[in-house]
């Protein structure tokens, strides 16, 4: 009893704790490897084995119960099947009895059917006898009727009458003379009818060729109207998207589809064709007429495909293409309505021959065109012709391939035109900030290109940070995008956004950027012009995102898709590089102007008096720097302002150090250094003030503007130091003189003579403090000389 109790307890433990985890893992089909590994690591494989056996037993019980359940259902199914067999036997008996009754009824009906057929046979024999008796009278009546049809121009009834005489009456005419006369006249009448019909058809050929141009122009006009409606819908969609992006609400549009019956618009009469073909088919010579029609239409097409060299293709291309389009529109309707006259293969053959000549002609004419607008004009009409003929089932891909192959040439011509416009814009710009006095000027030059820095309408007059180059360049770019999209749209490409973007990059890099660089490096720009050019480039760099959006909108690509994929132009990086080049050129001009003011060689480097005021050049430099920084603050971003300011200060510092090093300064004394120290203090006070007033403190708090005067400041501090020999102490040098170069310091110190050039100068040098400083300086000179 105790043993059974223990076994039961072990079995129950399989449903708890680890046994429950094992059971759940097996039920979910999970990997048991980790559980087995854990059991062996814990040294309890017997417990795991026992748990597995308990799970197996439990599953066996479940399987037995499942089998028992399905066994009972199987017994029930067998019983139902036996019941179905009994019902099938009863149904078979019923069908047998119904078939027997049907056979009895059908036998009586067959007897009645045989009687009916016999009655029909008697009736037929009587009818034939009557017809034979009336045949002679009726054939003469038909001959009279045929003559009336021919004289009245009703050829089809005449031919039908002749056929009726030949097929129905002539063989039953027993009067040989009458039969011989009728047999002789029938071919003559048919020949007369054929000649009359051919005459009418020839007149139609002349008429339809003269009308083909009008037919083509009407069909192309319908295509142009449909395209215009499509463009208007796209414009409304773009406007709705812009309003949605601006948060102005949602707009809902409904597309009105206007069903137009082309046959009501393209009115031309094919009755002579139908009539001639039908008559020839009735005469049994339809193949002869098919060849006649095909050959004559081919001759007309060959004549239409010839263009006059006396008239420029730009003037004649519309009439030429409209004539071809009209010809094939007529052929399409003939193919669809005059069944059997033309085959699809024949029309395709004619079209392939024509499209081959047209593409060759277009390629030749495109190679001669040297104006983008002319090429675009012809392209527009070619695409209209292509869409029109594609509507009629013609394969126009060769036409689109010609346009696609001319894509690069068109954009080259377009880029050349834009380059000329850009050169004119830059040449006519005064490089002064634009002043807008009215709101419409602000809308036209700023809002139209999203160049505003705030959504709040400014007060007028408004002074923009850019010159007229920016809005004029934006207009050129916008026009380029529109022209590029106009050429690439309605062609073989469905998604041509990437192509437009590629050419847009080419415009901005090869045309706009190059024109700006030429202006920067022309050597004729002053500081204000260079500063304005740099500001313009910064604005144009930001406008690149607008150009991408404009290209996407014109290509039908949702702007949110472009924003989501962070699509940008390579030109943005190039313009950024050019902007840095403009900053560099600006800085060079500023530095050159500073060099004019900083005439350091004219300073008295051996003055005997301690200076109380800064040197003469300092005021001019400060005034100039103030003017430059004030102007730059208005039109340049803070980072550019920082570059210009720090570059100018570095140049001032370098100029001061260079003045100490130059050969014209043979020697200098402490008084001269004190004068430079006063100059530096003026500069430092000035830049500290500008550091706060220009807002540069918000951009960089760790680096101040005065830090860019560090080399000259450390040099002056060293020369005025009581212990200049501390320069050779690495710790002190790193802390106070880290911007100074050994060789420069050595050269400058050799020129430093801290004793006035006058008689009895030694009596004035008895100040112990001065003596100590001079000895320290001499020690520094000696150690620098040893170091070098």
Automatic annotation (TrEMBL):
Chain residue ranges for the region called Disordered: 219-242
Residue intervals of the Exocyst complex subunit EXOC6/Sec15 C-terminal domain: 398-751
Domain Exocyst complex component EXOC6/Sec15 N-terminal stretches: 51-220
Gene Ontology annotations for the cellular component aspect, listed alphabetically: cytosol; exocyst
Location of the protein in the cell: Cytoplasm, Cytosol
InterPro entries from the UniProt entry: EXOC6/Sec15, EXOC6/Sec15_C, EXOC6/Sec15_C_dom1, EXOC6_Sec15_N, EXOC6PINT-1/Sec15/Tip20_C_dom2
Keywords for the protein's UniProt record, in alphabetical order: Coiled coil, Cytoplasm, Exocytosis, Transport
Compositionally biased intervals (Basic and acidic residues): 227-242
Any single biological process term in GO: pollen germination
PANTHER family hit by this protein: EXOCYST COMPLEX COMPONENT 6 (PTHR12702:SF0), SEC15 (PTHR12702)
Protein purpose: Component of the exocyst complex involved in the docking of exocytic vesicles with fusion sites on the plasma membrane during regulated or polarized secretion. Involved in polarized cell growth and organ morphogenesis. During cytokinesis, involved in cell plate initiation, cell plate maturation and formation of new primary cell wall.
Protein family membership: Belongs to the SEC15 family.
The protein's name in its UniProt record: Exocyst complex component
Organism: Nelumbo nucifera (Sacred lotus)
Organismal lineage: Eukaryota, Viridiplantae, Streptophyta, Embryophyta, Tracheophyta
């Amino acid at each position: 009893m105790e043993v059974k109790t223990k076994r039961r307890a072990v079995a129950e433990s399989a449903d708890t704790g680890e046994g429950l985890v094992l059971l759940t893992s097996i039920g979910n089909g999970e990997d048991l490897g980790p559980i087995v590994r854990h059991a062996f690591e814990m040294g309890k494989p017997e417990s795991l084995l026992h748990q597995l056996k308990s799970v197996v037993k439990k599953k066996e019980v479940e399987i037995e119960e499942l089998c028992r359940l399905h066994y009972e259902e199987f017994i029930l199914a067998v019983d139902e099947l036996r019941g179905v067999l009994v019902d099938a036997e009863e149904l078979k008996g019923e069908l047998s009895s119904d078939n027997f009754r049907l056979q009895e009824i059908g036998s009586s009906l067959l007897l009645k059917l045989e009687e009916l057929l016999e009655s029909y046979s008697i009736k037929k024999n009587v009818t034939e006898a009557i017809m034979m008796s009336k045949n002679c009278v009726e054939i003469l009546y038909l001959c009279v009727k045929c003559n009336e049809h021919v004289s009245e121009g009703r050829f089809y009834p005449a031919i039908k009458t002749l056929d009726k005489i030949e097929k129905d009456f002539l063989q039953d005419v027993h009067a040989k003379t009458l039969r011989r006369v009728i047999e002789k006249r029938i071919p003559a009448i048919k020949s007369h009818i054929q000649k009359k019909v051919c005459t009418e058809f020839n007149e139609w050929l002349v008429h339809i060729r003269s009308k083909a141009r009008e037919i083509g122009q009407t069909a192309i006009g319908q295509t142009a109207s449909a395209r215009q409606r499509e463009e208007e819908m796209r414009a409304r969609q773009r406007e709705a998207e812009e309003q949605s992006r601006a948060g102005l609400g949602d707009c809902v549009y409904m597309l009105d589809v206007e069903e137009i019956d082309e046959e009501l618009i393209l009115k031309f009469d094919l009755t002579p064709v139908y009539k001639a073909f039908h008559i020839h088919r009735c005469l049994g010579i339809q193949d002869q007429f098919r060849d006649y029609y095909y050959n004559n239409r081919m001759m007309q097409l060959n004549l239409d495909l010839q263009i006059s060299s006396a008239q420029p293709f730009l003037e004649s291309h519309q009439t030429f293409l409209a004539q071809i389009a009209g010809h094939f529109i007529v052929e399409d309707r003939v193919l669809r309505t005059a069944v059997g006259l033309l085959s699809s293969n024949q029309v395709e053959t004619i079209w392939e021959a024509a499209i081959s000549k047209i593409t060759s002609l277009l390629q030749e004419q495109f190679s001669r065109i040297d104006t983008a607008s002319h090429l675009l004009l012809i392209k527009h009409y070619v695409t209209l012709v292509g869409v029109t003929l594609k509507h009629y089932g013609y394969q126009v891909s060769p036409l689109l391939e010609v346009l696609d192959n001319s894509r690069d040439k068109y954009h080259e011509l377009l880029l050349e035109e834009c380059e000329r416009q850009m050169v004119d814009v830059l040449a006519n710009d005064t490089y002064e900030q634009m002043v807008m006095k009215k709101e419409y000027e602000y809308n036209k030059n700023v809002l139209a290109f999203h160049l505003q820095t705030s959504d709040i309408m400014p007060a007028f007059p408004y002074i923009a940070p850019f010159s007229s180059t920016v809005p004029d360049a934006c207009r050129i770019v916008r026009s380029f995008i529109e022209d590029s999209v106009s050429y690439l749209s309605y062609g073989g490409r469905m998604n041509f956004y990437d192509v437009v973007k590629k050419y847009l990059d080419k415009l901005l890099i090869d045309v706009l950027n190059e024109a700006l660089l030429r202006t920067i490096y022309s050597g004729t720009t002053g500081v204000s012009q260079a500063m304005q050019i740099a500001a313009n480039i910064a604005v144009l760099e930001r406008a690149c995102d607008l150009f991408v959006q404009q290209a996407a909108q014109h290509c039908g690509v949702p702007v949110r898709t472009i924003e989501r994929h962070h699509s940008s132009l390579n030109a943005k990086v190039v313009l950024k590089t050019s902007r840095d080049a403009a900053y560099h050129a600006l800085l060079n001009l500023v530095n050159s102007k500073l060099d004019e003011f900083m005439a350091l060689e004219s300073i008295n480097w051996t003055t005997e008096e301690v200076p109380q005021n800064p040197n003469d050049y300092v005021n001019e430099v400060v005034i100039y720097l103030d003017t430059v920084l004030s102007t730059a603050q208005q039109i340049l971003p803070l980072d550019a302002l920082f570059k210009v300011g720090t570059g100018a200060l570095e140049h001032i510092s370098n100029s001061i150090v260079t003045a100490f090093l130059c050969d014209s300064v043979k020697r200098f004394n402490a008084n001269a250094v004190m004068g430079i120290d006063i100059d530096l203090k003026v500069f430092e006070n000035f830049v500290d003030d500008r550091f706060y007033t220009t807002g540069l403190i918000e951009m960089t708090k760790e680096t101040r503007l005065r830090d860019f005067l560090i080399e000259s400041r450390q040099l002056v501090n060293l020369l005025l130091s009581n212990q200049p020999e501390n320069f050779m102490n690495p710790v002190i040098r790193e802390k106070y003189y880290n911007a100074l170069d050994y060789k420069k310091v050595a050269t400058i110190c050799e020129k430093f003579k801290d004793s006035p050039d006058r008689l009895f100068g030694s009596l004035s040098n008895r100040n112990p403090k001065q003596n100590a400083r001079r000895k320290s300086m001499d020690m520094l000179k000696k150690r620098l000389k040893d170091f070098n």
